[in-house]
């Protein structure tokens, strides 16, 4: 496995400042010898370099007492800078070449223990809230993010969250994230081209995985769907629709926002997929305990392989018989969300 050496911005700035410090020391040493001993520029530069490098070459000519003091100061300053430089290089090598594979091994082990989890590609402005939402709902999530600073912030905030500091465009990274066993993948990378590539790779590796991808341009939405995405979202278009809805239907919009917030003590809308072997197949909604008096209200019944509105049965009565290969859209009261999780585990 290849190891990518990544140097943080802070480390880069320190290395640059140390390099400038060495250059400044050489310049000051050269000018000092010229002024104190009256030597030529080349002789002064030569004396400064062999002094800083401590190579032990002979002096051009014996220096004066002031020149000796100047030489001692150069040696002491150079020793300090060299020690700092070596410490910085060692730190970068250890963090970049040793810590990185250890961390990747730990993240891979965490991902290997997951089943039916979700993979998030990109943890920027759009991805960060997605991470918080999944953690809030106690959903298993693996994050792939190439930016070292973002990765570090995620690890510091959520130490048990598997985060791979690598490119989501690399098939090996997707495999380490457990894409073969994953239930879904979300791609919110910084360009349409990258998101399109991730969708193609993910669909090829795992044909059954559910994929949601972000598009920056409307024209890309159809391409993402053709590439294998189950859903393609354009945030600018979604935001525009949301703003219009807040103006035209403010009460309904605020209610839907409350439902989607997932805050403690608020109701929620969940989807319950009914498999062929589910224990409630053949029962009515009332018999399955999914009516208003049970803390649940079935808003709609949708065919599992369709998202078309015309394929839905809305506001079904209590005597409606539950069929296999359908999805129940259920409104859950706050006190019933835990019971819903138990029910979902029972019918899965």
Summarize the structure.
The chain is α/β, with parallel strands linked by helices and 348 residues long. 51% of the residues lie in helices and 14% in strands.
Structure write-up:
There is one protein chain. The chain has 348 residues and is an alpha/beta fold. The protein has three domains: 9-104, Orthogonal Bundle (Helix Hairpins); 114-233, 3-Layer(aba) Sandwich (Rossmann fold); 267-347, 2-Layer Sandwich (Alpha-Beta Plaits). The protein is 51% helix and 14% strand. It has helices at residues 9-37, 41-53, 65-112, 127-136, 148-157, 171-176, 192-205, 218-227, 235-248, 250-261, 337-347; strands at residues 118-121, 141-144, 163-164, 184-187, 210-214, 231-233, 268-274, 296-303, 312-314, 326-332. Strands 3-2-1-4-5-6 form a six-stranded parallel beta sheet, with helices on both faces. A four-stranded antiparallel beta sheet has the order 7-10-8-9. Helix 7 links the parallel strand 4 and strand 5 (210-214). Helix 1 crosses helix 2 (41-53) and helix 9 (235-248) crosses helix 10. The longest helix has 48 residues, at 65-112. The protein is elongated, with a radius of gyration of 31 Å. Residues 1-8 have low confidence and may be disordered.
């Amino acid at each position: 496995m290849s190891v990518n050496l990544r140097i943080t911005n802070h480390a880069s700035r320190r290395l640059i400042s140390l390099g400038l410090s060495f250059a400044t020391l050489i310049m000051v040493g050269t000018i000092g010898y010229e002024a104190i001993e009256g030597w030529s520029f080349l002789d002064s530069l030569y004396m400064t370099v062999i002094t800083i490098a401590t190579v032990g070459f002979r002096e051009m000519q014996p220096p004066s007492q002031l020149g000796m003091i100047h030489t001692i100061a150069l040696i002491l300053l150079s020793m300090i800078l060299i020690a700092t430089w070596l410490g910085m290089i060692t730190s970068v090598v250890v963090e970049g070449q040793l810590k990185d594979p250890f961390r990747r091994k730990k993240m891979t082990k965490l991902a290997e223990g997951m089943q039916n989890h979700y993979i998030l590609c990109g943890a920027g402005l759009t991805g960060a809230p997605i991470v918080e939402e999944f953690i809030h709902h106690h959903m298993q999530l693996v994050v792939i993010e190439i930016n070292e600073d973002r990765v570090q912030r995620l690890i510091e905030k959520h130490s048990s969250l598997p985060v791979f500091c690598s490119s989501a465009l690399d098939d090996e990274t997707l495999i380490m994230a457990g894409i073969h066993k994953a239930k879904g993948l979300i791609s919110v990378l910084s360009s349409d081209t990258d998101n399109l590539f991730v969708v193609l790779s993910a669909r090829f590796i795992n044909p059954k995985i559910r994929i949601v991808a972000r598009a920056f341009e409307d024209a890309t939405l159809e391409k993402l769907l053709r590439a294998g995405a189950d859903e393609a979202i354009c945030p600018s278009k979604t935001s525009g629709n949301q703003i219009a809805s807040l103006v035209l239907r403010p009460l309904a919009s605020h209610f839907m926002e409350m439902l989607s917030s997932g805050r403690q003590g608020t109701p929620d809308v969940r989807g319950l997929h009914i498999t062929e072997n589910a224990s409630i197949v053949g029962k009515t909604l009332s018999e399955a305990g999914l009516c208003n008096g049970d803390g649940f209200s079935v808003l709609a019944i949708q065919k599992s392989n369709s998202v078309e509105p015309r394929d839905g049965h809305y506001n079904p009565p209590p005597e409606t018989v539950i069929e296999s290969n359908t999805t129940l859209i259920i409104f859950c009261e706050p006190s019933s969300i835990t019971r819903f999780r138990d029910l979902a585990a029972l019918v899965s």
